[in-house]
Amino acid sequence: MENRFFSAQVLDVLLDPTRWTVFGPYCEPPVEAVSAPDHEAWMADHSHRHGHVEVMAVLQGEGHHGYRGRVYPFSPGTVFCFGPGERHDVMMPEWAPEANLLWVNVTARGFAARLMSFSRRAHGRQGQPGHLLMAEDTGLLGPNPLLHLRAIERSRPAVRPLLVRAGLELLIAAIVEHGFEPPSGDTQPRARRVIRMVEDYIHEVGGATDIHECARLAGYSRAHFLRLFKDQTGSQVKPYIDGCRLAKTAELERQGYKHRQIAEHFGMSPSSFSRWYRRMSGQQPI
């Protein structure tokens, strides 16, 4: 039976973890960083970090990717796991060779996977498999360590890289397995579940996010995501984030945190947090 997502050649690599080159939290880089002045200059303005976990698996093509401020080579079988707060490239440079990637956004509730193709002719064009996998969809996902990276921190240092790799294997196994199943064809349940996952994530991080990250997590353009969120919840995204942030602020205040420390938690400057807090005073947290 053919897989809807991956060719036989790609499956040969995905189904053989001994051929993977894994970068991730708690893992030493498996290869040396390279000197790439053009890429280093580009990534100075094209990198970011966020509160959720992302996985980038290279299916076809060779090139470079910025991770933790260094540039590393990639080829089929290279798997990057970007932990919360770990800086990495956004997309690919316009001069980069063609590449096909599996890109997965992971939260404590589940994950959303999509296939992305980059080329010089249609730079950044991306396609989605058309299906969202949530934690409850497959027993293969199970208690995946990637869904609970903070729990990995409680393990012994020598064990942590093994848990990250085990999580990656479970994650990719679930996606490959789902590719052998027939397509659903109904996009509405998918839309509802995408937004539910984003809602859960906003609560999970206590509003320490923004519209751009939420749209990226959902796999939609900013405009499409804003419309979809309003259609599915009846609420605008920004007030929803603000409400969760207010609730988290109240929780941290009860624990004795000062506003300077709370601002740092949200990735805001103290002055920005003060302006936001004054503007939001009197509103009810979610």
Molecular structure report:
With 286 residues, this protein is an alpha+beta fold. The protein folds into 2 domains: 8-183, no CATH class; 186-286, Arc Repressor Mutant, subunit A (Orthogonal Bundle). It is 39% helix and 17% strand. The chain has 10 helices and 10 strands. The strands form 3 sheets. A 6-stranded mixed sheet has the order 1-6-3-8-9-10. Strands 2-7 form a two-stranded antiparallel sheet. Strands 4-5 form a two-stranded antiparallel ribbon. A hairpin with a 2-residue loop joins strand 4 and strand 5 (70-74). The chain is globular and about 60 Å long. It starts with 7 loop residues before the first helix and ends in a 6-residue tail after the last helix. Residues 123-131 have low confidence and may be disordered.
Distance between the termini: 47 Å
The sequence of SSEs as H and E is HEHEEEEEEEEEHHHHHHHH
Structural class computed from helices and strand pairing? alpha+beta
Average of per-residue pLDDT values? 84
The total beta strand count reads: 10
Number of domains: 2
Helix content: 25-40%
Topology:
Layout: H1 8-14, E1 21-23, H2 37-43, E2 47-48, E3 53-60, E4 63-67, E5 70-74, E6 78-82, E7 88-89, E8 99-106, E9 111-118, E10 126-127, H3 149-152, H4 160-179, H5 187-204, H6 211-218, H7 222-233, H8 237-254, H9 259-265, H10 270-280
Parallel strand pairs: 1-6
Antiparallel strand pairs: 2-7, 3-6, 3-8, 4-5, 8-9, 9-10
In short:
The protein has 286 residues and is of the alpha+beta class. 39% of the residues lie in helices and 17% in strands. β4 (63-67) and β5 form a beta hairpin.
